[in-house]
Amino acid sequence: MTHRYTFLINPAAKSGHAADVWQELETYLDDEKIIFEKFESQAPGDITKYAQHFVQRQPTNNQDHLVVVGGDGTLNEALNGIRDTMTSKMVPLAYLPAGSGNDFARAYQLDTVPINRLKKIINLTQNSSLEPEFVDTGVYIDRQHQTKRYFVNNLGIGFDALTVNLTNHSYLKKRLNRLGWGKLSYFISIFKALSIQDTFPLEVTWQKQTEYLPHTYLMTLSNHPYIGGGVEIMADANPRDAKIDLIVIENTGSTLRLLYILKQMIVGKHYRLPEVHRYTAEQFDLKTGRLEYGHADGEELGTHTFDLSVTTQKQPFWL
């Protein structure tokens, strides 16, 4: 049977690097006479619409494949598109990382050399003895806005979300991405966020327990260990256990103390600190008491109070 591939491409990922990656991939696909179509995003939300369109066509067999080319935010859009439109048949996703953070690729040890990854995807999808792997994705219900959304990596409120906001709007990000130093823009934003972020009250409920954390500085939910392009914030997070992992860091001291906590986090010794709270559960209910920045997979959620219910849902991926 003939295999067909639909590529959803964010040419702006990594400040335009993804467009160069796609040119290389397209040449290979043409040379190998592989049947494919492409959709390139022009604005936020386009990838979601293209993914919805793919599902609505309702492929009748396993020879139609959806491949995402871009960063973690691009993958987030595609995931939400297929989950929002999901029929009784699960639609597997293939992902070719071409962004600046690539935490999903890091968590699942995907090859980040574009041609190598493309060849792997083709081999996986055309081998009738292989099946896609089901892994955890996060799903949250925003009770205030009555919305339901999914995330592949992380959902954050507070310090990490502010850092994402500063990074996304930094004039340095594009320049550093062109030089291959994209991660540096994130770390520069971390130090800027230190001078801006304040503490906020957080209520955490899980397994019929409730804890009130009045001095929350950072709150991150994750499907796997990594945030921010390789920061191993929860090294023991398991992306296949049908549970969501949560870390909360409080700030009860000075900026120097915060820097010390961040240093310990980078070297993986932060769990032992009294300001660090670590949880794993099938579901969390979270409420914040003041306006805060939020993000999901590096995509900004705006600034508001949060009232969330968060759990996991399995999604098939060609890994």
Question: Could you explain the architecture of this structure?
Answer:
- The chain is α+β, with helices and mostly antiparallel strands and 319 residues long.
- The chain has 2 domains: 128 residues, Rossmann fold; 178 residues, Tumour Suppressor Smad4.
- It is built from 9 helices and 17 strands.
- The protein has a 15-stranded mixed beta sheet that branches.
- Strand 3, helix 3 and strand 4 form a beta-alpha-beta unit.
- The chain starts with a strand and ends with a strand.
Please tally the β strands and state the result.
17
What is the CATH-assigned architecture of the largest domain?
Answer: Sandwich
CATH topology of the largest domain: Tumour Suppressor Smad4
Tally the structural domains. Answer: 2
Give the uncertain stretches in residue-range form. Answer: none
Q: How do the helices and strands follow one another from N- to C-terminus? A: EHEHEHEHHEEEHHHEEEEEHEEEEE
The total count of helices amounts to 9
Q: Give the termini distance in whole angstroms.
A: 22 Å
Oligomeric form? single chain
Q: Could you say which overall geometry the principal axes of the C-alpha atoms support?
A: globular
Characterize the biggest β-sheet.
Answer: 15 strands, mixed
Pfam families: DAGK_cat, YegS_C
GO molecular function: ATP binding; kinase activity
Family: Belongs to the diacylglycerol/lipid kinase family.
GO biological process, one term: phospholipid biosynthetic process
Helix/strand layout:
Elements: E1 4-9, H1 13-31, E2 35-40, H2 46-56, E3 64-70, H3 72-84, E4 93-97, H4 103-107, H5 114-126, E5 133-142, E6 147-151, E7 154-158, H6 159-168, H7 171-178, H8 182-194, E8 200-206, E9 209-222, E10 226-227, E11 231-232, E12 244-250, H9 255-266, E13 276-281, E14 283-288, E15 292-296, E16 299-304, E17 307-318
Parallel strand pairs: 1-2, 1-3, 3-4, 4-17
Antiparallel strand pairs: 5-6, 5-17, 7-9, 7-15, 8-9, 8-14, 9-12, 10-11, 12-13, 14-17, 15-16
Helix pairs in contact: 1-7, 2-3, 6-8, 7-8
